[in-house]
């Protein structure tokens, strides 16, 4: 399976999950997630893909500057619409496109951004791996708080682990 297809499938897995959650369930703070909601984790996944697909000026990806649209945390229909758009946008990307990634590792408010060279392919791979991690966290929240919900057995499991388990 190709990278962008895998990323699209992963995003579609998140979208399918949202069909069975009410907005109240989706946005409820869950103690097992340190009072984050499933919606916060979905928004975070979406934001990372948005940063790659829509880089800043001069083809700079900056994960620090993500939009953090609260509607993505509260409205499952809206989140699914945005996910559908991301899946569509992934089809138009080129893995070899050169970009830069900017990140500020400072915690004291000083802008000490570092910039490194990368490619769209590498950053989509990062967003994919990052999404798997957050999907595993979402799965914990679902199992503990919504045991009646049907969950894809492979939600939050890396492809290499799925292959190994088979």
What features would you describe in this structure?
It is a single chain. The protein has 166 residues and is mostly helical. The chain has a single domain, classed as Four Helix Bundle (Hemerythrin (Met), subunit A), CATH 1.20.120. The chain is built from 7 helices and 3 strands; from the N terminus they run H-H-H-E-H-H-E-E-H-H. It has helices at 3-18, 23-27, 38-53, 71-74, 76-90, 120-145, 159-165, and strands spanning 60-61, 98-103, 114-119. The protein starts with a helix and ends with a helix. The model has no long low-confidence stretch (mean pLDDT 95).
Shape: globular
SSE pattern: HHHEHHEEHH
Global structural class? mainly alpha
Approximate helicity band: 40-55%
What descriptive keywords fit this protein?
mainly alpha, Four Helix Bundle (Hemerythrin (Met), subunit A), 7 helices, 8% strand, globular, 3-stranded mixed beta sheet
Short description:
The protein is mainly alpha-helical and 166 residues long.
SSE arrangement:
Blueprint: H1 3-18, H2 23-27, H3 38-53, E1 60-61, H4 71-74, H5 76-90, E2 98-103, E3 114-119, H6 120-145, H7 159-165
Parallel strand pairs: 1-2
Antiparallel strand pairs: 2-3
């Amino acid at each position: 399976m190709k990278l962008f297809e895998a990323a699209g499938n992963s995003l579609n897995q998140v979208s399918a999950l949202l069909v069975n959650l009410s907005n109240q369930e989706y946005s409820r703070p869950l103690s097992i997630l340190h009072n984050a909601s499933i919606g916060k984790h979905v928004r975070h996944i979406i934001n990372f893909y948005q940063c790659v697909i829509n880089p800043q000026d001069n083809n700079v990806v900056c994960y620090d500057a993500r939009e953090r649209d609260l509607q993505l945390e509260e409205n499952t229909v809206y989140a699914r619409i945005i996910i559908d758009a991301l899946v569509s946008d992934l089809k138009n990307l080129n893995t070899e496109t050169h970009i830069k990634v900017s990140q500020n590792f400072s915690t004291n408010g000083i802008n000490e951004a570092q910039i490194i060279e990368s490619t769209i392919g590498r950053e989509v791979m990062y967003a994919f791996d990052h999404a798997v991690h957050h999907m595993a966290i979402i799965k914990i929240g679902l199992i503990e708080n919504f045991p009646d919900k049907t969950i894809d057995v492979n939600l939050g499991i890396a492809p290499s682990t799925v292959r190994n388990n088979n």
